C-alpha cells in the first residue's frame, strides 16, 4: 500500500538522521550517552507535540491552528522570566530543573484545563470562543513577559534567553523518565478514543448524529492535548511551529484523512525534523542559533505557503 | 456631546498629568518654577504628554482604518502583523547601519510595516468567505511568522532584549529631543480625515466602491500607508501598544456607527485618553517607581477584549 510505503520511508529517514547524529564523529562513551539523551528528548517531544497538534486540529476543524495558540507558550515564558526576575537565577525554583519542570508544567496544565472548565458550562461548547479567550490571555502574559524582560538585568536576560528557545542541549536526564511516563499514560488513556477522531473530523453535527458523545470526547481530547503540550514545553521550551508544520506535511505526504496514520506520520516527521535541526545547529552553524528558531522559521514560511495555497484567489 | 465630554476629560487629565511625577510640581508653583522644576516640565513632562496624545490618537486611527479596509472588527495593527513588520524593519535598520539616523530607521521600519500590511490584506482577500473570527487568527499567525524571522536575526546578533523593548510600550524614556518624529502623526491624521469618506466607501467592498466611482486600490494603498507610517513611528519612539487599535474603534462605533468621518475625532480623542489614563495609572500605582503603559494597557485591554467577546457571543445567540 502506498501510504504504508511512505510511512516506512519517513521512518527510515528519521532513523538515519538519528543514527548520523549519534554515530558520526563519535569519540567515547561520554559523548555517546550525551547524544543518546538528546535523541531520547527529541523522540519524546516529537511524540507529544505531533499527536497533540493533530488532535487539536481535528477538534477545531482547522489545519492552521496549533495548541500553543491558547497561550501556553506565553505562560511558560512568564513562569521562567518571573522566576529569574523575582527569585534570581540561583533560587531553587530555577536552578533545580526538577522543581522548575514541576512548577512550569503544573501551571500550564492548570491554565489549559481552567480555560476549558470556565467556558464549557451549561453543556455549551464554543471551541473558537475558548481559543480567542486563550489568545487574549496569551497576549496578557506576553505583555507581562516583555515588561519584566525590559527591566531585567542583561545578564539575567541571557539566563532566561536560554530557556526561551527550545534546545536539546540541557535536557535534564532525570526528567526524561517522568516526561516519558506522562506521555505513555496519555497514549494509553487515549487509545480507546482514537477511532472516534475520524468521525469527529466530519464536524460536530455529523459526529453527534453518528453516536459520538461529543462533550465527553472533547473533554478527554482537550485534557490529553493539555498534558502533552505542558510536558514537552516544560521539558525543552516552546517550539510553536513544530506541530503545525509536521501535521500539515504529514497530510500532504501521506494524502490520507485517517488520523491514526497521520499521527504516526507526523511523529516520525517530527523526529526527522528535530534530529535534522539539531544536526544543523551543532555541526553546521556551530551553535549560533537554536533548534526552535530554525524550526519556527521553516515552519512559519511553510505556514504562509499553506494559507496562500489553500485559498486561491 | 460625547465628543465634548471626551475632549474635556482629555484636557483635564492632560493638565493633571503634568503634576504627576517624582519631582513635585504643583499647580500653585507653576508660575514660579525653580530651575529644576522648569527643566522637568519642559524636558520631560510636556514631551511625555505630547507623545502620549500622538501615539494614542495615531494608533487608534490606524486601527479604525484597518478595520474599515479589512471589513473586520477584530483587525488592528497588532493583530495583523503590521507592528511586527515595523519591528523587523527597525531591527534590519539597526543591523544594516548602526549609525542610521532616527528618520532613516523609521523609513526602513515603514517599508517593512507596509509590506506586512499589504501581505495581510492580500491574505484577507483570499479568506474573505470564512468565519470573521478566522481573520484575526490568521493575522496573529502571520505576526508570528514575522516574529520568527525577527527572532532568528536578533538571536544571532544578541539583540533580543532590544527587540523586546520595541515590543513593549513605555513612555518613561521620552525626553525632549527624542520623540519629535511622533509629530508626523499629525499630518497623517489629517490625511486620514481627508480620505475618510473614501475609506468608508472602500469598506463596502471592491465592487461597490468601484461602481461608486472610487479608485479602490489607491484608497486601500493610502490607508495602508497611513497605518504603516503610524506603526513605524510609534514602534521606534515608544514601542508597541497592544489592544489600542483594536478596542478604541470598536467602542466608538458602538455609538457613532461605521461612518468614518463621524467616528474619526472621537476615535482619536478616546485613544489618547485611554493611553493617558493607563500611563497615569502606571505612574501612580507603585510611586515613586513606574509600571510601563504597555503592561497597564495589556491588563486593562485583555479585560475589555474579554467583555467584547462575551457580548458578541451573547448577541450571536
Automatic annotation (TrEMBL), chain A:
Bilayer-spanning residue ranges: 6-24, 36-55, 75-94, 101-120, 126-152, 173-191, 221-249, 261-281, 287-308
Top-level division of the source organism's lineage: Bacteria
Keyword check for Signal: no
Subcellular location: Cell membrane
Major localization class: membrane
Alphabetical UniProt keywords: Cell membrane, Membrane, Transmembrane, Transmembrane helix, Transport
Pfam families: FecCD (PF01032)
UniProt key word Transmembrane: yes
Membrane topology qualifier: Multi-pass membrane protein
Record-stated family: Belongs to the binding-protein-dependent transport system permease family. FecCD subfamily.
Name by which UniProt lists this protein: Iron chelate uptake ABC transporter family permease subunit
Protein species of origin: Geochorda subterranea
Amino acid at each position: 500500500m502506498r501510504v504504508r510505503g511512505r510511512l516506512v520511508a519517513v521512518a527510515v529517514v528519521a532513523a538515519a538522521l538519528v543514527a548520523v547524529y549519534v554515530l558520526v564523529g563519535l569519540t567515547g562513551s561520554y559523548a555517546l550517552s550525551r547524544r543518546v539523551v538528546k535523541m531520547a528528548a527529541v523522540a519524546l517531544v516529537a511524540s507529544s507535540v505531533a499527536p497533540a497538534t493533530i488532535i487539536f486540529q481535528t477538534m477545531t476543524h482547522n489545519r492552521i491552528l496549533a495548541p500553543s495558540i491558547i497561550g501556553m507558550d506565553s505562560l511558560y515564558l512568564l513562569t521562567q522570566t518571573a522566576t529569574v526576575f523575582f527569585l534570581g537565577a540561583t533560587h531553587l525554583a530555577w536552578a533545580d530543573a526538577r522543581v522548575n519542570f514541576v512548577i512550569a508544567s503544573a501551571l500550564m496544565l492548570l491554565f489549559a484545563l481552567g480555560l476549558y472548565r470556565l467556558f464549557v458550562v451549561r453543556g455549551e461548547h464554543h471551541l473558537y470562543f475558548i481559543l480567542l479567550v486563550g489568545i487574549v490571555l496569551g497576549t496578557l502574559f506576553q505583555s507581562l513577559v516583555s515588561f519584566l524582560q525590559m527591566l531585567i538585568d542583561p545578564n539575567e536576560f541571557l539566563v532566561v534567553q536560554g530557556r526561551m528557545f527550545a534546545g536539546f542541549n540541557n535536557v535534564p536526564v532525570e526528567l526524561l523518565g517522568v516526561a516519558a511516563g506522562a506521555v505513555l499514560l496519555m497514549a494509553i488513556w487515549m487509545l480507546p478514543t482514537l477511532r472516534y477522531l475520524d468521525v469527529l473530523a466530519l464536524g460536530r453535527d455529523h459526529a453527534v448524529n453518528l453516536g459520538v458523545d461529543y462533550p465527553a470526547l472533547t473533554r478527554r481530547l482537550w485534557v490529553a492535548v493539555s498534558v502533552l503540550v505542558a510536558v514537552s514545553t516544560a521539558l525543552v521550551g516552546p517550539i510553536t511551529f513544530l506541530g503545525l508544520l509536521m501535521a500539515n506535511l504529514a497530510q500532504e505526504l501521506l494524502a490520507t484523512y485517517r488520523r491514526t496514520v497521520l499521527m504516526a506520520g507526523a511523529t516520525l516527521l517530527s523526529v526527522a525534523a528535530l534530529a535534522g535541526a539539531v544536526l544543523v545547529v551543532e555541526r553546521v552553524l556551530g551553535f549560533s542559533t537554536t533548534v526552535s528558531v530554525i524550526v519556527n522559521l521553516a515552519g512559519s514560511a511553510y505556514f504562509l505557503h499553506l494559507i496562500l495555497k489553500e485559498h486561491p484567489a | 456631546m460625547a465628543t465634548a465630554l471626551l475632549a474635556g476629560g482629555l484636557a483635564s487629565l492632560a493638565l493633571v498629568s503634568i503634576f504627576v511625577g517624582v519631582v513635585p510640581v504643583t499647580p500653585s508653583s507653576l508660575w514660579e518654577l525653580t530651575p529644576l522644576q522648569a527643566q522637568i516640565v519642559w524636558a520631560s513632562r510636556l514631551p511625555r504628554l505630547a507623545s502620549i496624545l500622538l501615539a494614542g490618537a495615531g494608533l487608534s486611527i490606524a486601527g479604525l482604518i484597518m478595520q474599515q479596509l479589512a471589513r473586520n472588527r477584530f483587525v488592528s495593527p497588532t493583530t495583523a502583523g503590521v507592528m511586527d513588520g515595523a519591528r523587523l524593519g527597525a531591527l534590519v535598520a539597526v543591523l544594516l547601519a548602526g549609525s542610521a539616523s532616527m528618520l532613516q530607521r523609521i523609513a526602513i521600519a515603514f517599508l517593512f510595516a507596509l509590506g506586512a500590511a499589504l501581505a495581510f490584506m492580500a491574505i484577507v482577500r483570499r479568506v474573505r468567505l470564512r468565519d470573521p473570527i478566522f481573520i484575526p487568527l490568521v493575522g496573529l499567525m502571520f505576526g508570528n511568522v514575522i516574529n520568527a524571522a525577527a527572532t532568528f536575526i536578533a538571536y544571532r546578533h544578541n539583540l533580543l532584549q532590544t527587540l523586546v523593548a520595541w515590543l513593549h510600550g513605555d513612555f518613561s524614556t521620552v525626553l525632549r529631543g527624542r520623540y519629535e518624529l511622533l509629530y508626523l502623526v499629525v499630518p497623517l491624521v489629517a490625511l486620514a480625515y481627508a480620505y475618510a469618506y473614501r475609506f468608508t466607501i472602500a469598506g463596502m467592498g471592491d465592487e461597490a466602491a468601484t461602481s461608486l466611482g472610487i479608485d479602490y486600490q489607491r484608497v486601500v494603498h493610502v490607508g495602508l500607508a497611513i497605518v504603516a507610517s503610524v506603526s513605524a513611528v510609534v514602534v521606534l519612539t515608544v514601542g508597541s501598544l497592544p489592544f489600542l487599535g483594536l478596542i478604541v474603534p470598536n467602542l466608538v462605533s458602538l455609538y457613532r456607527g461605521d461612518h468614518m468621518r463621524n467616528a474619526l475625532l472621537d476615535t482619536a480623542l478616546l485613544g489618547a485618553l485611554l493611553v493617558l489614563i493607563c500611563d497615569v495609572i502606571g505612574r501612580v500605582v507603585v510611586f515613586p517607581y513606574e509600571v510601563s503603559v504597555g503592561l497597564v494597557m495589556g491588563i486593562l485591554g485583555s479585560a475589555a477584549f474579554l467583555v467584547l467577546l462575551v457580548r458578541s457571543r451573547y448577541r450571536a445567540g
